[in-house]
Design brief:
By secondary structure, the chain is α/β, with parallel strands linked by helices. It is built from 16 helices and 13 strands.
Length: about 525
């Protein structure tokens, strides 16, 4: 909690609890006490701004000031009720404020200061699938090694800034308080001239945001990498597209799919698959995708129906019973192929757009492009973004190294091996569940497991959202410890394969026994 938040809530509690209140009233009148609390409230309001987590305290404030000013005129029972409500509200506020704290992002440990800027690209060759009147446009943020002699000359970036820009809406209301959470990036600071630096492209998870991993991207940038994080519009929570305005997550499928999420349902097959984890998930998906490939390749409706009928009899698909019907399976095949796999392909096309057009991007930083090594490119992502990284590194020779942070692999090229050094990082959530898409591997493939971690934990911004841990939606490893493990693991991997630091990854894995379990090699 911030300074004036603490003072505000503490003053309310002290003025409500009879023992401390009577002690205070020995030295000042009730009206003077009310004025003092109002002053603290105004300081909080103008210095730190109001936030929704403190709403119960604001209620307690109104009850308290009314009580203090009108105390002689109110019946005893009403005063007791008001005090009880006020104290309860104050304690609820403390719980809410500590569940959603205003806490700065830990500083990176690399030798460089970190700069950042936002920019935008439009693809002249692709129509926006979700909004066909526009071409595909992507906003992205870049973090880079900076030279900052006087940090106070530059504004520091704040966390999740896209969530509270543009028109005021529910997302802005919920995330607006994060404008007080500072990251360690200085906006539009000069880039270091010690380059050229390797380029790493980061991809957020589905329904997430481009700065979901501020510690990771700043850690990489502070150690000599240019990190570009893409927003994939309509599949991110919220994005500001300069040529068309704010766009939020689309709850329906793109128009080119040919059906809506209401018109076609897989009868729960997709949800059932998500409950089957580990190697059993991998075995099931291997069989499912083999049938999807046959279904997609079929030229006529009759041939497609025959694929469905044959698939219903496969022993490998029987774990989907009792949902395994012709209608459900065909709908699942259509959704997986036309929605999920096509979406992964679309994200890969976003990555390719950025690489293709990188030298033409609009950047406010002098000599920026010349400090980026476009012959040394890494691609990574979390969850759905990790799947996009995996798919890219299966088909594009420009992938110098890739990392999938606990993302279930989608994509048309599921059966192809990655063609570049690759690191697959697994939580406890679905360990071994991606084997169908990555095995048998080529050389320089690493498959590791971080025990006591769950899928959402890999969003390192969750260090400022401990409420999820309170709700049991995370593993046992503390958020900050996991963030540090992932940061150092990613850095050592990229150092080995993008900077040529021999055995950097192997040496790092040997230095953290127990924290990272190696499945392969």
């Amino acid at each position: 909690m911030q300074l004036f938040e603490w003072l505000f809530i503490t003053s309310i509690i002290f003025a409500l609890v009879p023992y401390t209140k009577h002690w205070i009233l020995r030295y000042m009148s009730s009206r003077k006490l009310a004025v003092l609390i109002v002053i603290v409230f105004l300081l909080h309001l103008f210095v730190e701004n109001a936030r929704w987590q403190l709403a119960p305290a604001y209620l307690a404030f109104m009850v308290l000031t009314s009580n203090l000013v009108l105390m002689p005129k109110l019946p005893v029972w009403l005063r007791v009720l008001g005090v009880s409500i006020g104290v309860l509200a104050a304690f609820v506020t403390v719980l809410a404020a500590n569940s959603f704290p205003v806490r700065d992002i830990p500083a990176p440990s690399g030798p460089y200061t970190v700069g950042s800027f936002n920019t935008f690209l439009v693809d002249p060759n692709r129509v926006e699938r979700y909004e066909p009147s526009y071409n595909r446009g992507v906003t992205f943020r870049v973090w880079y090694p900076a030279e900052v002699a006087e940090p106070e000359e530059y504004n520091q970036a704040t966390l999740f800034s896209e969530m509270y820009t543009g028109d005021f809406d529910l997302i802005s209301f919920l995330f607006g308080y994060m404008a007080h959470i500072k990251t360690n990036s200085y906006i539009e600071a000069p880039i270091s001239r010690n380059g050229p630096f390797p380029l790493i492209i980061f991809n957020h998870g589905l329904f997430s945001t481009l700065d979901q991993n501020p510690q990771l991207v700043e850690h990489l940038a502070s150690n000599g990498y240019v990190v570009l994080s893409l927003t994939h519009p309509f599949e991110s929570l919220k994005v500001d597209l300069p040529d068309r305005g704010i766009r939020t997550f689309s709850m329906d499928y793109p128009a080119d799919v040919g059906f809506s999420s209401i018109e076609v349902s897989d009868g729960g097959i997709g949800d059932k698959i998500s409950t089957i984890i580990g190697v059993a998930h991998s075995d099931l998906m291997s069989a499912v995708y083999a049938q999807i490939d046959l279904y997609t390749a079929a030229l006529t409706d009759e041939e497609k129906q025959q694929v469905i009928l044959d698939a219903l009899l496969l022993e490998e698909l029987q774990p989907l019973q009792p949902l395994l019907t012709a209608i459900n399976l065909q709908s699942f095949f259509d959704i997986r192929s036309r929605v999920r796999n096509r979406s992964t392909e679309y994200w890969v096309e976003d990555i390719q757009l950025v690489i293709d057009e990188f030298e033409t991007i609009d950047t406010p930083i002098e000599a920026f492009i010349g400090q980026v090594d476009l012959k040394s490119i890494g691609v990574m992502g979390h969850s759905y973004g990790g799947s996009a990284a995996g798919e890219f590194c299966k088909i594009d020779i420009r992938c110098g190294a890739g990392i999938n942070l606990d993302g279930t692999q989608f994509g048309y090229n599921w059966s192809k091996p990655v063609i570049a050094p690759f690191l697959l990082v697994n939580s406890d959530t679905n360990l071994g569940g991606n084997d169908y898409a990555y095995y048998p591997p080529n050389d320089n493939f690493f498959d590791v497991h971080i025990p006591d971690s769950e899928h959402p934990d890999y969003i390192d911004a969750l260090t400022v959202l401990p409420v999820l841990r309170m709700m049991g939606l995370s593993g046992e490893m503390p958020y900050q410890e996991l963030a540090t493990v992932v940061n150092e693991l990613s850095l050592s991997f990229f150092n080995q394969y993008l900077k040529g630091n021999e055995d950097a990854l192997v040496k790092h894995l040997e230095s953290v026994p127990g924290k990272i379990i190696v499945r392969h090699p």
